[in-house]
Amino acid sequence: MMNMIILRKKMISKIINEFTTPFYLYDENVIEKKIQFLNNLDLNFSHKFYFAVKANPNLAILNTIKRHGFGAEVVSAGELFKALRSGFDPSNIIFDGPGKTEFDLKYAITQQIRSINIENLDEIDFINDYSISKGLVTNIGIRINPNIDGYTMEKITTGKTGGKFGLSLDQINFESFSKFKGVNLTTLSEHIGSQIIDHHQLIKSYKELISLADNLKKNNILIETLDFGGGFGVLDHSDKKMNFSEWEKDLNDALKKKSYKIIFEPGRFIVADSCELISKILYIKKSGDKNIIITDCSLSEYLRPALYNIEPPIEVSSNSKKQITYDIAGGICESTDYLLKDVTIPEVKKGEYIKFLNVGAYGSSMSSTYNSRPRPLEIMMNKNEYRVIRSRDTLEDLCKNEIM
Ligand code: LLP
Question: The whole model's pTM is what?
Answer without folding.
Answer: 0.97
